[in-house]
């Protein structure tokens, strides 16, 4: 029996030595829990898009747009921890991109890191005080995660007063301002 185990080990070792391309890669992020074993579902829809983007990321590792696109796909699936992997890489490649910082703030909030999310939104506003999207998200963060209605109201009023804001966001800011949070409330995504 022991001889058989040794023979299996040696043959396995020799096979690996002759076929080095058959190794497990640890430098590419794993798919979110529950995504493996989906059979033919990976051939279409969101999984196909993610697989194509992962290939593009492999081909263009220093392209922040690819990193951002991957992050946004994972965010749409609710895999915020996975999205943060790509957002961190994108932020390293394009640190002043407000879309990357905004998405990073949203992902951080959704992973329970409210203070870090606040810093991401504030970094956007430090560069562009007129960015109503970052201001709106900061207002929601103050209202729901940080429990500071005065600061939330200040941010939401600024959104409502912004000449650049679209009517839908202005209406949402007004609604958030008029309705105090109830126990267990979370902002609309």
TrEMBL record:
<dbReference type="InterPro" id="IPR019734">
    <property type="entry name" value="TPR_rpt"/>
</dbReference>
<dbReference type="Pfam" id="PF14559">
    <property type="entry name" value="TPR_19"/>
</dbReference>
<keyword id="KW-0677">Repeat</keyword>
<dbReference type="InterPro" id="IPR051685">
    <property type="entry name" value="Ycf3/AcsC/BcsC/TPR_MFPF"/>
</dbReference>
<feature type="repeat" description="TPR">
    <location>
        <begin position="64"/>
        <end position="97"/>
    </location>
</feature>
<keyword id="KW-0802">TPR repeat</keyword>
<protein>
    <submittedName>
        <fullName>Tetratricopeptide repeat protein</fullName>
    </submittedName>
</protein>
<feature type="region of interest" description="Disordered">
    <location>
        <begin position="160"/>
        <end position="189"/>
    </location>
</feature>
<feature type="compositionally biased region" description="Basic and acidic residues">
    <location>
        <begin position="165"/>
        <end position="189"/>
    </location>
</feature>
<dbReference type="InterPro" id="IPR011990">
    <property type="entry name" value="TPR-like_helical_dom_sf"/>
</dbReference>
């Amino acid at each position: 029996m022991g001889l058989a185990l040794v023979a299996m080990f040696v043959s396995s070792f020799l096979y690996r030595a002759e076929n080095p391309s058959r190794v497990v890669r640890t430098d590419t992020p794993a798919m979110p829990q529950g995504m493996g074993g989906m059979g033919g579902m990976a051939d279409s829809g969101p999984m196909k898009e993610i697989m194509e983007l992962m290939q593009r990321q492999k081909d263009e590792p220093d392209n922040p747009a690819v990193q951002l696109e991957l992050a946004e796909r994972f965010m749409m699936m609710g895999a915020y921890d996975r999205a943060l992997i790509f957002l961190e890489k994108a932020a390293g490649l394009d640190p002043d991109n407000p879309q990357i910082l905004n998405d990073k703030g949203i992902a951080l909030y959704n992973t329970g890191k409210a203070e870090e999310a606040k810093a991401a939104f504030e970094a956007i506003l430090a560069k562009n005080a007129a960015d109503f999207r970052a201001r709106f998200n900061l207002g929601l963060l103050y209202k729901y995660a940080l429990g500071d209605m005065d600061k939330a109201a200040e941010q939401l009023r600024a959104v409502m007063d912004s000449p650049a804001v679209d009517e839908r966001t202005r209406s949402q800011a007004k609604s958030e301002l008029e309705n105090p949070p109830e126990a267990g409330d979370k902002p609309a995504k």
